[in-house]
Design a protein that fits this description.
heterodimer, A: 402 residues, mainly alpha, ABC transporter involved in vitamin B12 uptake, BtuC, two-stranded antiparallel ribbon, 6 strands, globular, B: alpha/beta, 2 domains, 6-stranded mixed sheet, 10 helices, 27% strand
Chain lengths: 402, 232
């Protein structure tokens, strides 16, 4: 980037007037975008009247339509974020940390956010496969379940605490990831999808029928975690303010999400991310340049399983009760929809898609039995406005030579 | 460097190669000619390890039955049919993938890029462009550059001249000749017999899966076998 050097001049170093203007404009754009997204999320959380829900969705559709019509707007916003990365990062984290305070005592809203965040971790995990490497894995729900079950079983039967079960559950799920990866290696596309669907269904059936997993009733009474003597069942007191107990899990899930985002970012820009994109584009060409396709596909399965298990563990300890029906094939389909609607291979897009599609069913409760119908209509509407997903992968930045 | 001993390959029940024996010694530039459907691409895939022969042995760079993903590390650069670039990635990323699979260290990449720049100045001008948006000629150059950036000792090319304008074909073959002059071993699989025989030392002619002629390029140019295959 030849123009990048002059734009990155720090304000104090006597940048020229246009450069300084550019900096403040970038900061303004970043701040405005983050505030707008946070505000939109808040509105979407609190609206209950059906008409208002429709208005909010309509406003989103119009905004997306405008973005689609003039790509320069999106490019300019993305450019501002690119140039002011650390500012965007600090502001984004600050807003996320302050969010429960804005919501206050409404435990239902905080609960919804925790679920949104956990699902975001799952979709980021799936995105390594579906988005980066084009592996349609329909077994993410199962790896999520294996994480949740292994941690819950360790806690209930052996008295392990939350923190100790985390690595073990992640390991168990990763082994399972390899186990479904292996038979999948000989298949591709629709056939690969079928193999993963079968694996997911098998796990669901096993959880349902084994005695030691509690059968269809599942596992009850998973103890809440605690940290430095503070139990997660107690309300959280910060700066003289009291937040409901759910806020403990909000921050735990948020920590996990940030970890997932960092891992995703590092992988995306690494040789591994590039190799995944290469085998997504053309497997034979990838092999011709010496990429070990089997190894990289297995790696995608393992990374997916590892992160999904973390989400499963947090979910199990948060809700305190898990059953096979939390981890069905339908969960995997939902996760896949979220990745596709959000935008393949773009972490921010995937998170936005996940929040939207996790909250949507809650907002459509008034339609009761027809809820899924409206859900489907909204998905179709958004995809026809933005066929590539809400925020698809942008051109990779190249970090090999400058 | 490349040795095929009585190699037969079938797709299901359909035989594609019949008892093909072919040798490319170190430092040689050998071309393999043949009309459409002769089995040229099957032979490329067999050499590249993309398909396993039904019978016979394949040795590439001293290694028997080398799998495709290991072949690059053995110092073999592959230029597959239709270039097969990664269209959604930039030229630089395409080159980077060609480099990193072979040589793990990053330092040599810039050096490799410089070498590429000397052979194809235009590739360097296009580094940040998406490979899918390049012209056909540029894509052909990038595909060759991607195979070369890991500094292979053996180069195997499948129909590199396909779809190129005559002027570009001449330029392309001049580069191949130069690589050979610098010591590379080249197996050039081509339909364009005239151009290929002009730069090659030896040639094989493949027809319906069998080698029907195997001689010095000079002799093949005058041979009636080649003429009959192409013009009858």
């Amino acid at each position: 980037m030849s123009t990048g050097g002059s734009l990155n001049t720090e304000p104090g170093e006597g940048g020229t007037a246009p450069a300084r203007f550019r900096i403040s404009r970038d900061l303004g754009t970043v701040a405005a975008t983050i505030t707008a997204v946070a505000g939109l999320l808040y509105v979407f959380l609190v609206v209950t009247v059906t008409l208002h829900v429709v208005i909010v969705l309509g406003a989103m559709a119009v905004a997306l339509w405008l973005l689609q019509r003039d790509p320069r707007v999106e490019a300019s916003i993305a450019g501002s974020f690119e140039r002011r990365r650390s500012f965007a990062l600090v502001l984004g984290v600050a807003v996320a940390l302050a969010y429960p305070f804005a919501i206050g005592q409404n435990t239902y809203h905080i609960h919804l956010l925790v679920i949104c965040i956990l699902y975001s971790v799952l979709t980021i995990a799936l995105n390594f496969q579906l988005g980066s490497a084009n592996i349609p894995n329909f077994a993410t729900g199962a790896t999520y379940g294996i994480g949740a079950y292994s941690s819950a079983l360790l806690a209930l039967n052996h008295g392990w605490n939350f923190w100790a079960t985390l690595p073990v559950a992640a390991l168990a799920a990763t082994v399972f990831g390899f186990a479904i990866g292996l038979p999948s290696m000989r298949t591709r596309d629709a056939y690969l999808a079928l193999v993963t669907i079968a694996c997911g269904v098998i796990i669901h059936q096993l959880l349902n029928n084994f005695e030691w997993t509690g059968g269809a009733q599942g596992l009850i009474g998973i103890p809440a975690p605690s940290v430095f003597g503070h139990s997660f069942t107690q309300p959280l007191r910060v700066f003289g303010l009291t937040l409901p107990a759910q806020a403990n899990f909000y921050y735990l899930a948020l920590l996990l999400l940030m970890l997932a985002i960092v891992v995703a970012g590092r992988l995306h820009h690494s040789r591994i991310g590039l190799a995944w994109n290469a085998l997504r584009a053309d497997e034979i060409a990838a092999r011709s340049v010496g990429i070990n396709v089997v190894w990289y596909k297995m790696l995608a399965f393992a990374v997916d399983a590892f992160l999904a298990a973390f989400a499963g563990v947090v979910y199990a300890f948060y809700v305190g009760y898990i059953a096979p029906d939390n981890f069905t094939f339908l969960v995997s389909v939902m996760l896949m929809t979220m990745v596709i609607v959000g935008g393949m291979d773009n972490v921010i897009g995937v998170i936005i898609g996940t929040f939207l599609l996790t909250l949507l069913p809650e907002k459509l409760r008034v339609f009761s039995d027809y809820r899924l119908l409206f859900y489907g209509l909204v998905v179709i509407a958004f995809l026809s406005i933005r066929p590539q997903g809400l925020f698809p992968q942008r051109l990779r930045r190249y970090r090999g030579v400058e | 460097m490349i040795e095929l001993e009585a190699v037969s390959t079938r797709y299901g029940a359909v035989p594609m190669l019949r008892e093909v024996t072919l040798r490319v010694g170190a430092g040689e530039l050998v071309c393999l000619l043949g009309p459409n459907g002769a089995g040229k691409t099957t032979l490329f895939k067999t050499v590249a390890g993309l398909i396993r022969p039904t019978s016979g042995t394949v040795r590439v760079a001293g290694s028997p039955d080398a799998r495709t993903e290991r072949i690059a590390a053995l110092g073999v650069g592959l230029v597959p049919e239709n270039r097969r670039l990664f269209p959604g990635l930039t030229v630089a990323q395409n080159l980077c993938l060609g480099y990193e699979a072979v040589r793990r260290e990053r330092v040599g990449f810039d050096q490799g890029l410089e070498d590429i720049g000397r052979l194809f100045p235009r590739v360097l001008e296009r580094l940040d462009q998406m490979a899918g948006t390049l012209s056909g000629g540029e894509q052909a150059m990038v595909a060759l550059a991607r195979a070369l950036i890991g500094r292979p000792t053996v180069l195997v090319m499948d129909e590199p001249s396909l779809g190129l304008a005559p002027k570009l074909i001449r330029e392309y073959f001049r580069i191949v000749e130069e690589l050979h002059a610098r010591g590379s071993t080249v197996l050039l699989i081509e339909q364009n017999a005239g151009m290929a025989l002009r730069i090659a030392q030896r040639g094989y002619v493949l027809s319906r899966g069998s080698v029907v002629a195997d001689d010095a390029a000079e002799a093949l140019r005058k041979s009636s076998v080649v003429r009959n295959l192409y013009f009858s």
